Amino acid sequence: MTDTRVFHRSLRHTPSTAVRGDGVWLFDSNGRAYLDGSGGAAVSCLGHNHPEVRAAMHAQIDALAYAHTGFFTTEVAERLAERLVAEAPAGTSHAYFVSGGSEAIEAALKMARQYAVETGQPQRQYLVARRQSYHGNTLGALAVGGNAWRRAQFAPLLVDVTHVSPCYEYRDRHEGESVAQYVDRLGQELEDTFQRLGSDKVLAFVAEPVVGATLGAVPAVQGYFRRMREICDRHGVLLIADEVMCGMGRSGTRYAIEQEGITPDLITIAKGLGGGYQPIGAVMAQGHIVDAMARGSGFFQHGHTYLGHATACAAALAVQEIIARDDLLARVRRQGEGLMARLQARLGEHPNVGDLRGRGLFQGVELVADRATRAPFDPARQLHARVKRAAMARGLMCYPMGGTIDGRQGDHILLAPPFIISDDELDQLVDRLAGAIDDAL
Ligand code: PLP
After folding, report:
1. Residue that finishes a domain, picked among 325, 350, 379
2. The CATH number of the domain where 124 resides is what?
3. Other Cβ atoms closer than 10 A to 139
4. 217-228 confidence digits (pLDDT tens)
5. Do 388 and 277 lie in a common domain?
6. Which of 38, 134, 208 to mutate to test the pocket of ligand 1 (most atoms within 8 A of CB)?
7. Known InterPro entries for this protein (predicted)?
8. Same structural domain for residues 120 and 90?
């Protein structure tokens, strides 16, 4: 058991104590420096200790830290929503604020359901999502997620959700199958699933535009989301894009789904919204969803104590203003190319690196026992956990994970450094990562 009173993620091991942050660096109580190569869990988009974000939070706290939304709105929440709506895909009309990613998913699922009820479709109740996905750890979000390991022991508590295949080209596109044929196959699976459930009974299809926490930055192939959107439209099913990890500029555009040329009905965001300065997330809702509720019951039957928290909104507003002012999306694209080029140069021919992929500063490394057969390592080796320990020993934070591949664990490493990372820091990131992989093997 750990010797502290904090209920840590591990009850066997107390993590180092973080005491200070500066840009892409975190420092522990022993004075060791860690390059934040994963932004924590794809959170710290501006790096640590940004003076302007701190100042914005201080100013808000000095005026008003919090006001309950059952009584008041605040200027800062209104300004943040206005900015987010203006930057969101066309047709987005409102931002519903929550405290994080799981809460955003819960709110989106309930919004979808209430929309169905208020538009005279109360029979719509089935959710369809994808295997090897992650949408959060609360019970609704966990039910929608398709990470077998995270779900296993809680399965009896989870609502029934139908899971279809992810779009995972490296593993699942058959040899000789074109991208278009692969999209056809996945489209047919979704179509068949809707038909089997009764297409007028399906409520929503939930997917991450770039899969994060189960597969390590796997984007869909060209045309996949366009096809999924067409099928959802044909059956009156809402499309919920979960951009909690891949959104807010992380993939090189404000929303990852912009690169697919479609508009979801609801988009969930969190992590990079507040950049780690405060816990905050949101559901970005299209006008038709909000209008239906406005015309119907006139309210959304949901709500948490901390929704629209003024200090959290102040932090998020400052983060998003800085991203726009400093043109950081262009920087994400540029440094993202630099990161991929370095990964290719250093790990592209590595015998145990099967795939390098991702978008912007959201990239993944898939480790394999055999490059030719793409066979994963024996899950008992817990290679991803060993890479994490080896990386920390080398002063690097990266986000390794074991996803399930055909019922087996695969080892992936997610990289999501702050948007402000320099060329020299990218060199250090990839050097340390390559060293850590070899240490762990
Ligand atoms: N959705 C996605 C795509 C995520 O990656 C995560 C967290 O990693 C969540 C939802 C849950 O977010 P949170 O941990 O803030 O509840």
Report:
1. 325
2. 3.40.640.10
3. 14
4. 999 999 999 999
5. no
6. 134
7. Aminotrans_3, Aminotrans_3_PPA_site, PyrdxlP-dep_Trfase, PyrdxlP-dep_Trfase_major, PyrdxlP-dep_Trfase_small
8. yes
251 and 318 in a single domain? The answer is yes
pTM over 0.80: yes
Cross-strand bridge partners of residue 366: 355, 412
pLDDT digits (tens, 9 = 90+) for 31-86: 999 999 999 999 999 999 999 999 999 999 999 999 999 999 999 999 999 999 99
In a domain, 9, yes or no: no
| Ligand 1 atom 10: residue of nearest CA | 135
Q: Which of 44, 240, 244, 399 to mutate to test the pocket of ligand 1 (most atoms within 8 A of CB)?
A: 244
Is pLDDT of 253 > 90?
yes
Closest CA to 268 of 72, 358, 360, 134: 134
- Residue 162 · residue 207 · CB < 8 Å: no
| Residue 314, both tokens | 């102040």
Instruction: Indicate whether 312 and 388 sit together in one domain.
Output: no
The pLDDT tens digits for 174-222 are 999 999 999 999 999 999 999 999 989 999 999 999 999 999 999 999 9
- Residue 154 has phi, psi (to 5 degrees) of -100, 0
155 with 294, same domain: the answer is yes
Amino acid at 134: Y
Domain range for 44 is 18-50+327-440
Mutate to test the pocket of ligand 1, among 43, 243, 271, 306 (most ligand atoms within 8 A of CB): 271
Residues 309 and 369 placed together within one structural domain of the fold: no
Give the per-residue pLDDT at 55: 98
Residue 381 lies in a domain: yes
CA distance 315 to 54: 8
What is d(CA 99, CA 271) in angstroms, rounded to the nearest whole number? 10
Same domain, yes or no: 145 and 288: yes
- Which protein residue has the closest C-alpha to ligand 1 atom 15? 101
How far is C-alpha 253 from the geometric centre of its chain's CA atoms?
A: 14
Give the position, in ligand 1's atom list, of the atom nearest the Cα of 271. 15
Complex ipTM value: 0.99
Report the amino acid identity of residue 54.
Answer: R
Ligand 1 in contact with 134 (CB < 6 A)? yes
Q: Is 100 in the pocket of ligand 1 (CB under 6 A)?
A: yes
